[in-house]
Specification:
The protein is an alpha/beta fold and 612 residues long. It is built from ten helices and 31 strands.
Length: 612
């Protein structure tokens, strides 16, 4: 048992315009922290940032931007999610600075040093993306006049091609909608993977590999009364774990025979169930799940010696210690730890692994997003773009990967979309149009191959405004033997201004607008083209475009065509910049809240015939 954690050694609260920024040192063995707030130091309660899931946050600068922010703050540490936070530390007091509407926007300075080369830029979003049940790929129905199956396949292909995503994870691999299991009149198990083969062939055709979530329970393997998740299967534990294990073993053996080990080793993963700590997905208790995990992992290993096994795929990052403690004793394979969370940046769960002697085990957040609520309006707003960028940077710093939930608004687990703009989970809409989260990921994907150093100073630096930079270096040693080799041929900087608070996500907060000065050091002298692309409440915002065009529930033919023409990451004009002998370029951005800019600098040719 870990028990409740001691609080951080100190808490610093800095008042800024429209916000209070809190920072604290990490606590050994803590997985996260809960910010407390109140009008009096003796009347503090956990601060709810409105994410609808965990109140636990990682050890990162935290901005309280709520209306009426200010007062007393304290922070408690969380050793393990199930134990909750320990006692908060000593409270501190801060009140946001008044906003002078007649004054220029508050400044934040960003310094990028191309000489500070940090190795390959991590891209946590590439590992995986979520999807509706894979049988959806074969659906011939329509939503809003658009073909569900065709557009679901196109969405997976687009996230692969444009975002670099390598895998897709979906519920219901072994469900009844694909007919994988039944029993004959004598009760003999019968396995049929033909429909699942068609689905997997379709997935491979998009360029992706599957993360095969082993669930849910086929009806023939569950005792009544049945608790249906969807037509894809039941939340009931299998009535016979030997028959369940036989199904899993036969399935993995079938994969080896049909696709071969060489293909399976290109990234296929098997995950045991989905969110068994929620009654809607699992009607058993934790012990039932751990028994299922053992039976499943052992069946996989009997059929394949190395295919990665992942779990526990739990909501709100639950049961991590419980699973690790269990497999420490049972010896079952656990190759990837897979928590889920919504509404917060991914937590740093490395302390959990370290206390179980598993430092270095891969951590994949196989479900993550701004909210666990389907049909939530925030899902369509650019607030989600800055939230996504913040989460990916946090994951990159811990070595974790993150699967955004989900690729497409073609989603029926909680009801099919009733209109184009409906608060769906998708990165892409019905009709395949990019939403702000997609554009944020697309901007991050444009960062150069090699990460370069970034530092920030000013009001809201790191708590509101963040930046991430990467460069492509010309003439570099392709072997990477000399990390200082080459000069920057292209530099890309993503800079964003956003808050974790969801209470007022739709408001245009003038007090949170920032003037961002960017200084780029160690560039070769010369003239540089500057390309500036933006997602914010005015740009690259599908819901705004639809409203401007007068779209009702669904676009008409003319409106679909117009929206397709707007399906780009919007460009803002910017003049070239000159870099003198000192090697420094300077730019200035006006960055409202819920805005993300992608800035690219590329040297212009010199000499006869060059463009002036």
């Amino acid at each position: 048992m870990v028990g409740q954690a001691a609080p951080p050694a100190r808490l610093d609260a800095v008042a800024g315009t429209g916000q209070v920024t809190l920072t604290w040192p990490a606590v050994d063995d803590a997985v996260g922290y809960v910010v407390h707030h109140g009008d009096r130091p003796d009347a503090l309660t956990p601060l709810d940032h409105g994410g609808g899931d965990l109140l636990v946050v990682p050890c990162l600068p935290y901005a309280d931007t709520r209306a009426g922010a200010g007062g007393w703050y304290a922070v408690a540490a969380v050793g393990r999610i199930e134990d909750g936070p320990g006692a908060p530390g000593e409270p501190v007091h801060a009140v946001p600075l008044a906003h002078d509407r007649s004054a220029p926007a508050t400044e934040v300075a960003v310094r990028v040093d191309t000489a500070d080369r940090r190795g390959p830029l991590p891209r946590p979003w590439r590992a995986c993306v979520g999807s509706e049940h894979l049988s959806h790929l074969l659906c011939r129905d329509e939503t809003g006049g658009r073909p569900i199956g065709v557009e679901s396949v196109e969405a997976l292909a687009r996230v692969h091609e444009r975002l670099g995503v390598r895998r897709v994870r979906a519920h219901g691999t072994l469900g009844d909608d694909l007919g994988v299991y039944r029993e004959d009149v004598d009760g003999t198990p019968l396995h049929d993977f033909a429909a699942l083969d068609t689905v997997l062939d379709t997935v491979l055709g998009t360029g992706l590999r599957p993360v095969l979530e082993l669930g849910f329970t086929p009806r023939a393997l569950a005792d009544p009364p049945h608790h249906e998740i969807t037509v894809a299967g039941l939340a009931d534990p299998p009535r016979d774990l030997e028959r369940w294990a036989g199904l899993v073993e036969a399935f993995v053996a079938h994969l080896r025979e049909r696709y071969g080990d060489e293909e399976l080793e290109r990234g296929w993963v098997l995950e045991v169930w989905n969110e068994p700590n929620l009654g809607c997905f699992w009607t058993g208790d934790q012990r039932d799940y751990l028994r299922l995990y053992d039976a499943t992992a052992r069946a996989v290993r009997r059929a394949h010696p190395t295919l990665p096994v992942a779990g526990p795929a739990t909501a709100a990052a639950g049961w991590l210690d419980a699973l690790l403690e269990h497999v420490d004793g049972s010896g079952s394979a656990l190759d990837i730890l897979t928590p889920h969370a919504y509404g917060i940046p991914p937590l740093d769960v490395r302390p959990v692994l370290e206390r179980h002697g598993r430092a270095g085990t891969a951590v994949w957040w196989t479900e993550w997003g701004p909210t666990p609520t389907h049909f939530a309006p925030v899902n369509d707003h650019p607030w989600t773009g800055t939230f996504t960028a913040r989460g990916m940077l946090a994951a990159a710093r811990t070595g974790a990967t993150v699967a955004c939930w989900v690729a497409s608004d073609h989603f029926e687990e909680l009801g099919r979309p009733p209109r184009l703009v409906h608060g769906g989970f998708g990165l892409l809409s019905v009709g395949g149009l990019a939403k702000p989260r997609f554009w944020a990921l697309h901007a991050l994907e444009q960062l150069g191959d090699e990460e370069v150093g970034v530092t920030l100073e000013g009001d809201g630096a790191e708590s509101l405004v963040q930046a991430w930079a990467g460069a492509d270096f010309s003439g570099a040693d392709p072997s990477g033997a000399d990390p200082s080799d080459g000069e920057p041929a292209r530099l890309a900087i993503a800079v964003w201004n956003g808050t974790l608070q969801q209470h007022d996500w739709a408001q245009d907060r003038a007090d949170l607008r920032r003037a961002v000065s960017i200084e780029v050091a160690a560039l070769p002298p010369g003239r540089y083209a500057v390309r500036h692309r933006r997602v914010d409440p005015q740009h690259s915002h599908l819901a705004r475009h639809a409203a401007d065009l007068g779209v009702g529930d669904w676009p008409d033919e003319r409106q679909w065509k117009a929206l397709a023409g707007l399906d780009v990451l919007a460009e803002l004009p910017h003049e070239p910049v000159d870099v003198g002998p000192g090697g420094t370029a300077r730019l200035l951005l006006d960055l409202p809240t819920s805005a993300l800019s992608l800035i690219e600098l590329m040297p212009l040719p010199t000499g006869p015939g060059a463009t002036p």
